[in-house]
Write a structure and sequence with these properties.
Order of helices and strands: EEHHHHHHHHHH
Helix content: 55-70%
Number of strands: 2
Strand content: under 5%
Radius of gyration: 17 Å
Oligomer: single chain
Mean pLDDT: 97
Largest sheet: 2 strands, antiparallel
Number of helices: 10
Structural class: mainly alpha
């Protein structure tokens, strides 16, 4: 029987159930609850904007978007967003999902920390970002009625969430500082990792092999 939270139905397909269990088993309760809220807030923003979206694809995008912070899926040679995106595409293709839909989920996850651009793309891509922005940054907070926000948080609490998610970000990317060049996660390392020096776009240009 499917579950409904804040008026949003949680997908109940075999694929969605397996995605739920994978994230529950590999991620911390912090990341699991956050990922569920990202789906719920993304779906609510989609309803508010009158968007037609693939709920199952949005669910997988939301649930897998932070898998790159987990021990199982964490790598050190690429951005953490790509870790989760790669696993989502592998998971979807293994379940018979066509390449176009799997690539849409990949894009939604890979771009979820890139401001503005995802919002001009397919609804599932835009709504993963909308969900992340609302839960982490508070962007769009007032676009979701208070009663629905409260229903989401009642189902998936966020105690001391600001401090705990920043700690999770730090732990998940501190071993690959170079992958934060040009993206928002450099701010996390600048605050929490002593000695971190962010890459500088101007210096890269000036120090390149070109003589002029």
């Amino acid at each position: 029987m499917s579950e409904t939270i804040a008026g949003v139905r949680i997908p109940d397909s075999a694929l969605a159930r397996e995605a739920t269990e994978l994230v529950r088993e590999t991620a911390s309760p912090l990341v699991f609850d956050h990922s569920r809220r990202v789906y719920l807030f993304g779906a609510l923003r989609g309803q508010e904007q009158g968007l037609s979206f693939d709920a199952e694809l949005l669910y997988v995008g939301a649930m897998f978007h932070d898998l790159g912070l987990t021990e199982r899926f964490r790598r050190t040679d690429q951005r953490f967003e790509i870790d989760g995106a790669d696993e989502a595409r592998r998971f979807l293709r293994a379940h018979g999902v066509d390449e176009e839909r799997a690539d849409r989920a990949w894009t939604a996850i890979a771009l979820h920390t890139t401001p503005e651009i995802p919002l001009h793309m397919a609804p599932e891509v835009a709504l993963v970002t909308r969900g992340v922005e609302l839960d982490v940054l508070g962007i769009g907070y007032d676009a979701v009625p208070a009663a629905r926000r409260e229903a989401v948080v009642s189902a998936h609490p966020r105690p001391d969430f600001k401090n705990r998610i920043l700690a999770a970000f730090t732990d998940g990317i501190k071993d690959r500082p170079d992958t934060t060049f040009g993206n928002v996660k450099a701010d996390v390392l600048a605050h929490f990792v002593p000695g971190f020096r962010r890459g500088d776009f101007v210096e890269v240009i000036r120090d390149s092999d070109w003589s002029e």
